[in-house]
Amino acid sequence: MVEPFQGLVCQINTTTPIFIEAEFDCRNGEITALLGVSGAGKTTLLKILAGLIKPQQGEIHLNQRTWFNSQCHLHLTPQQRHIGYVPQHFGLFEHQTALENVISGLNHLPKAERHARANDWLEMVGLATEQHKRPPQLSGGQRQRIALARALAREPDLLLLDEPFSAVDPQTRKQLHLQLLKLKSRIHCPVIMVTHNMREAQLLADHLVLMNNGRILQQGTTDEVISQPNSITAAHLLGNQNVVYAKVISQDQSKQTTQIQLGSHQFCLPDPQVRHIGERVGCLLPNELNVLSNSAPIAITLDIHCHYQDGQYRQIMATIVGDHTPLTLHSMPELLRKTESSQAVWLLTPTDITLL
Amino acid sequence: MDWQALLLSIKLSVITTLILTPISILVARALAFNQFRGKAWVEALAMTPLILPPTVIGYYLLVGFGQQSWLGQTLQTVLGTPIVFHFSGLVLASLLVNIPFALQPIQRAFEAIPDDVRDAAACCGLNRWQSLWKVEIPLVWPGVLTAIVLCFSHVLGEFGVVLMIGGNIAGETKTLSIAIYDKVQAFDFDAAGIMSLILLIFAVCTLAFTTHLTKKIGVNRG
Amino acid sequence: MIRFRFVLFFLMLFAPTCFAQSIPTVAAAANVRFALDKIQQQFEQDTGKQVRISYGSSGQLMQQIKHGAPFEIFLSANIDYAQKIVDAKLAPPPAKIYAIGRLAIMHNKHVKLPLSNNLAYLKQELQQGKIQRFAIANPDHAPYGARAKDVLQAIGVWQQIQPKLLYGENVAQAAQFALSNASQGGIVALSLTKAKGFSEKADAVAIDAKLHPKLTQAMVLLNNASDTAKAFYAYLQSPKAQQTLLDFGFDLPK
């Protein structure tokens, strides 16, 4: 007897208000990040999950309860879905105090319980002392925490966060990240978080859904997706710009390896896919320039065109000898000083290189 | 000093404002939050009284609601009294003429409510009425107040329409502005002057009071 | 406490108008205002009953009555408008002539031009450019305006004076224009010049009645007339009322 899936399951297909084609799920207690550039459709998808926008076709289920089914003409309103929603600019009620804001979401509780529940959650986000202040009197970070408390106090069946940390400064953002991580144990529903910041997704999310132009490019655990993008677009979206084109020289089907020509280098890589001889294939290379590893069998010579200091790292613009594709790499400053010449030898293992 | 005329003017202003304000709130909200085909036409229609001369409006009301018209006769059967040359006619005329004054400020105020706030209200489990009462009205209140003031003072000074369909009947349709006009024609410039001054003071006080109230609301918001 | 004040406020608003609704309304041409106001006072003193009077130009009042204005008596400044009401079956015939109106030429005390009953100086004053603006009632719907036009045509100045004319919406407004410093006078109802305080501000001379058709002022009692209205209608024809009309410069019908 297979245990029924506990969490959010959704499949959406629509062209209004924009084109969206998405299918994914999220378990109770887990955080799924919707990652993509502006206009990718992330916020629209979030609003569809909230019930604020009605898509043309699809299904949305939560814990075996159907929220949306286009075939049955079923569409529950946000009020009927019992969700927690934190909009991008928090959507606080400016005329109410912090406490009243949190109580606003508790109409489903008996009056006697509302005050206590609101107080508890304000304490949990560290704003018990500010409960009688109004939003205009509070800082951006404090307002964000009220919005979060208001959503979480409802003990919602689904928590939706729309770029929750983008409207605050970097310092406050770090504190808010910490806050959310601390609260994670208290959250028993699926959490869908929209973000355009990959670092944030890495930090907070268990699963990553990569979106572009309304479609899902790739989804999986955060580590999987980030380390193994499945296409060039995905790689770009994840911040990796280093895609170089190589030529397939030969394949060994039994060992599942492919020999490629990259610039003036040749080497062998593990590759489950069947390729044609002479086929042009994209290679995703890492961002970090490593010149020291002793066990790395692949050595690629680079022409270094310029480098500059960026924070702790040295940013480097280089090309592989025999190729013209510009590569953006970073490395520790000391390593670069060791090479006085305008060339460097990059040491890589076969798993560092992904064939697309 | 024609106290009856002053009271009549105030009565007309109060009744018109009391009827028009709640209706305008609901209509303004519908217009602000919904897009539909022909919306531009509806909004233009609502603005028409602003550009039509009051006497033209009065004329059309006379022809449209007079006892010789079907509409006028129907309304007379329904309400029991004729419309034109009666107080009810003034109320009807005032309601129609003041739609833009009531609707515009309130609609702008509703449009100014950020989408995030409305979305958050819906996701907090507040239905449309709860959202209107607890979230939206406190935010649009200055707009509503502006509408009330505009409406009230506009009706107080209304002349052209009242003249056309009122008939200058003391105690029924002889509002203060008509009384002032009447006094001038009777060469009673003193009385006309006193009444004009009272109307002016009343209008200025109303304006000052509501400005003060609006500021107070702003301060309360922190 | 606040609620109680609110209720009281509303009652106050409604009270005077509820009371007023039972008093019959009379529509009267603007020129009879001062005479009729006095007759109204006398009526109230003598009978204890009240009427409300609305003044306007006869043509406008006739239109309003046709559109259903709830007047119970209509005093027109001519017989035609009153007859139209009878023809429209809104009042039983006949239209009763209650007075013969007279015109007057007037200007305020700041204008230093002579006045005469046959307007002898007017032509000269026009040629000398001493008259920039001259007020009469609107001939289209005010009988006194139409008669004023007749006078001006009779003495042969109509072409010259027409571009300088100010039209009052009724003869009382014409008098108001004529009184103001924006005009050099006008032709108005003689009865208006008999108003209290008028002689302090302006000079007026009655115009020779032969210069224009008779201003036969007629009245009708409308179909919906109440008993009080009927009583007032009769009172208007009493000797006391007629004397008041004479005092204010009207002639009586033979």
UniProtKB/TrEMBL annotation, chain A:
SUPFAM superfamilies according to UniProt: P-loop containing nucleoside triphosphate hydrolases (SSF52540)
Keywords: ATP-binding, Nucleotide-binding, Transport
InterPro entries from the UniProt entry: AAA+_ATPase, ABC_SmlMolc_Importer, ABC_transporter-like_ATP-bd, ABC_transporter-like_CS, P-loop_NTPase
Record's keyword annotation contains Transport: yes
Coiled coil location: none
Domain ABC transporter: start-end pairs: 3-238
Highest rank taxon of the organism: Bacteria
Pfam families listed in its UniProt record: ABC_tran
GO MF entry, a single one: ATP binding
Protein name: ATP-binding cassette domain-containing protein
Organism classification: Bacteria, Pseudomonadati, Pseudomonadota, Gammaproteobacteria, Alteromonadales
Automatic annotation (TrEMBL), chain B:
Keyword list, A-Z: Cell inner membrane, Cell membrane, Membrane, Molybdenum, Transmembrane, Transmembrane helix, Transport
Top-level taxon of origin: Bacteria
Subcellular location: Cell inner membrane; Cell membrane
InterPro entries, sorted: MetI-like, MetI-like_sf, ModB_ABC
Family the entry assigns: Belongs to the binding-protein-dependent transport system permease family. CysTW subfamily.
UniProt-recorded Gene Ontology molecular function terms: molybdate ion transmembrane transporter activity
Matches recorded under NCBIfam families: modB_ABC
Protein's name according to its UniProt entry: Molybdenum transport system permease
Lineage: Bacteria, Pseudomonadati, Pseudomonadota, Gammaproteobacteria, Alteromonadales
Physiological role: Part of the binding-protein-dependent transport system for molybdenum; probably responsible for the translocation of the substrate across the membrane.
Keyword Nuclease tagged: no
Topology of the protein relative to the lipid bilayer: Multi-pass membrane protein
One GO cellular component, as annotated: plasma membrane
Span of domain ABC transmembrane type-1: 6-210
Residue stretches spanning the membrane: 6-28, 40-63, 83-103, 137-156, 191-213
Automatic annotation (TrEMBL), chain C:
Protein name per the record: Molybdate ABC transporter substrate-binding protein
Gene3D superfamilies xrefs: Periplasmic binding protein-like II
Family assignment from sequence similarity: Belongs to the bacterial solute-binding protein ModA family.
Gene Ontology biological process terms in this record: molybdate ion transport
Position of the signal peptide: 1-20
InterPro entries the record matches: AvModA-like_subst-bd (IPR044084), ModA (IPR005950), ModA/WtpA (IPR050682)
Residues reported to bind molybdate: S58, V171
GO terms of molecular function: metal ion binding; molybdate ion binding
Lineage: Bacteria, Pseudomonadati, Pseudomonadota, Gammaproteobacteria, Alteromonadales
Record key words, sorted: Metal-binding, Molybdenum, Signal
Name of a matching Pfam family: SBP_bac_11
UniProt entry tagged with the keyword NAD: no
